[in-house]
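Structure ticket #2291
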Amino acid sequence: MLRRFVYLILVLLAATVVVFMMMHLAPGDPAQAMLGPMARGDALAQLRQQLGLNDPLYIQYLHWLEHTLRGDLGRSIRQQVPVSSLIFSQFKNTAILGSVSFVIAVVGGLALGFLAGLKRGSFFDRIIIVIASSGIAIPSFFLGLVLAYVFGIRLHVLPSNGMYSLQGGGGLLDLIKHLALPAITLAVGPIAVVARMTRSSTLEVLSQDYVRTARAKGLHERAVATRHIFKNALIPIIHLLGLQAGILLSATALVEVVFSWPGIGALMVNSILTRDLPVTQGSVLLIAAVYAIVSVFADFAHMVVDPRVHQS
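Resolution: structure written out below.
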């Protein structure tokens, strides 16, 4: 685990380099975006000097990294507020959406995949295979638009934008209603991936000798399924769940834009469009950090659950 955390530090350091270079090599001028297309050359030059954009890239990177290590992500170019307060206030909304989507994905994917594996070749198994393949193939933003149109605009069953109703009291029930469509949209892809992996793992476990031995001893089929099949089929899926948690976090951007969810994904997209470099860098770096941390804890959970895992 110590070695994993050392790798985590190196990954985060590499992420800072990639994020910084991608943002600064992208087309567009932050100073021009701030002052508008009619800005004069001397005003642009003065603003670039104030923002440090005239310095060499490596100087700008080292300056940004130094402040980042101190917890200072800079100030938003457009809103003139600290980036850290801006992204962390939005991140809690993304955490709510991502957590609910992850629970839906885990419960739905494990249940569907496990039952499909137990009923291999049945009509239910074929339906699950078709649903899983469709869930992987359909882009989340397209599915979100379809759900928003059907349930929000045509049927008026669920709200299709925002986090709370403007006329509502902002209670828990109002939040759940607004959370339903984006959470389902975000969870469909991971459900399909987890279901396919769970089905394959279940089929592999079903062919093991200890399963046949348990049945030969006269154990009830439910006990065989829960104690021997499901428990062992879950082992190779744990790491996949950790990866899906990180993917969910990074995939929230388009879903948040579709449903006008006030999270870090929507904030990041808006900052890219307006060339607000400090906000974009801080948002991407936070997502990369969470993704890397989740991957490390997924490795740790795998080692705890599977005693066969040894560190070389």
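Closing remark: The longest helix spans residues 83-118.
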